[in-house]
Amino acid sequence: MEGGSNDDKEVEALRAQVEQLERLWQKDALRSLARETLLKSELLELKASLSAAESNGKSLPIPLVG
Questions:
Q1: In sequence order, what DSSP letters do the residues of 16-58 get, joined into one string?
Q2: Neighbour tally for 1: CB within 10 Å
Q3: Main-chain dihedrals φ then ψ at residue 62, nearest 5 degrees
Q4: How far apart (Å, rounded) are the C-alpha atoms in residues 41 and 60?
Q5: Whole-prediction pTM
Q6: What is the pLDDT of residues 2-60, one digit of tens each?
Q7: How far apart are CA 37 and CA 56, in angstroms?
Q8: 49: Cβ–Cβ under 8 A, 6 or more apart, which residues?
């Protein structure tokens, strides 16, 4: 039954590869999620700054150069 033993080794090797790929995928997915969260936060901050600038620009009188 040497063939069975080799098959078992191949299956175990493939399982190990799948587990490694799953770990890498999870790590990459978490990294992508963290990056997405950071970008969303930066976008919200930028939108708030733009909104504040627009509000300030509309409510302030235009200075006269004299």
A1: HHHHHHHHHHHHHHHHHHHHHHHHHHHHHHHHHHHHHHHHHHH
A2: 7
A3: -75, 125
A4: 28
A5: 0.60
A6: 557 999 999 999 999 999 999 999 999 999 999 999 999 999 999 998 888 888 876 54
A7: 29
A8: none
Structure tokens at 48: 């708030």
Q: Which two tokens stand for residue 34?
A: 């963290």
* Spatial distance between the Cα atoms of 34 and 55, rounded to a whole number of angstroms: 32
Name residue, tokens 């004299």.
Answer: 66
* Token pair 């409510």 in the structure block, residue: 59
SS3 8: helix
How far from the centroid of its chain's Cα atoms is residue 64's Cα?
Answer: 48
Categorise residue 60: left if φ over 0, alpha if ψ from -120 to 50, beta otherwise: beta
